[in-house]
Write a structure and sequence with these properties.
It contains four helices and 19 strands. With 425 residues, it is mostly beta strands. The protein starts with a helix and ends with a strand. The N terminus is likely disordered.
Amino acid sequence: MRPRHGIIACLCAALASVLIVSGANADPLDTYGLTSRVRGMGGAAAATSDPLASILYNPAAMTAGDGPALSLGVLTAINRLTPTGVNGRRSPMVAYELSLASPLPLGPGSWRRRVHLGLTLLLPHDHIYDFDMPAVDDPAWVGLGSSSRRLVLGASLGVRILDSLSLGAGITLLPIVTGRVDLDLTDPEGYDNVRVDVDPRLRPVAGILYEPVPGWRLGLSYRMGNHANIDLPVDAQASGIDLSARVLGPADWTPSVLSLGAELPVWRDRLTLSVQADWRFTSGYRHLSSDVALYDADGTDGLGARVPGAHFQDSVAGRLGMEWRLGRFLLRGGYAFVSRAAPEQTGRSNLLDAHRHHATLGAAAELLSGGGGVPRISLSVDAQLLALHGAVTEKAAYDPGNPGFPTLESGGQVWVVGGGVELGW
């Protein structure tokens, strides 16, 4: 039991938490990449020969591995975005990677080493799930910022059905937030109840890999989008007035991605080239803000607030990567372009988006070649620069209370540095 002012404070706190905690809209592995090799090669992973990276990008490509593989890594992203925006914080994002891929021991028959299982985990240093909820007219970056600070857990299975053909499927686990708030403000000694549940939601991925000749790999994958919501009904009673409300909004929004890629040796098996094209289904994007429905005695929503549509368009991405082997050393480089999905922000909202250029570099060194029960051990490092086109948007109507009025200038960079150790048997 609590005094009345405590109940009111609880109501305010509950509603405030709902109106702040929402709006993540990116998968950090979509934006930055999984494993040092993929990040160093521009993110081209649809036909990768890296079985650890293929867990999330194309599970069919896991069959490239000839034995168990384990990687431990770290990833740091530093935003230099203008304006900073609600979710464009400048403090670095630090996350730890753990990936494991292995063929399953199905006996000595023809299926031995044809079925591969992979698990991956991305764990942010200081948050399990961090996302911000801006007001409709607050500047907020799309696909960048604090929305990339969240746990990612994935599992995949790849099967080589023919010597030249493999199929695969997997899932990525994301949370969905639900709950309820029940408050009685009519009694100073009344009871209140606040419940929040976090349930899993799955993002499927499926792919196919074709290898017409050894080393020449063609991959096609589809990663389904995830539209996890936060849904919190609120019921309160005060001075004979019943208050019913419902807050509903996107707790996570990640677009579906269709990828077509190729990886092939181009010079004496020392130089490997990877290319990839992505179609990103971003036209279904939902605004970061939440709808608030406030019901009257008849159950009619006459006082609620609705978020305007975002009106995004689908976007495309092109990726190019190369890897050059020099004995025990590997040098990597890459480039990627991701087109803008958001329209010009001439209305009330200020969703910040731009064409992105990714310039990437990487290197790896083999410390132990393995054999005789001793694992193969290699160290790798990578770095990339995400450069965003600068833009100036002019509002179409007079709105001095809008942070983007009369014009809003945006742009900047994101610096990403990573590395890790990989063991193979």
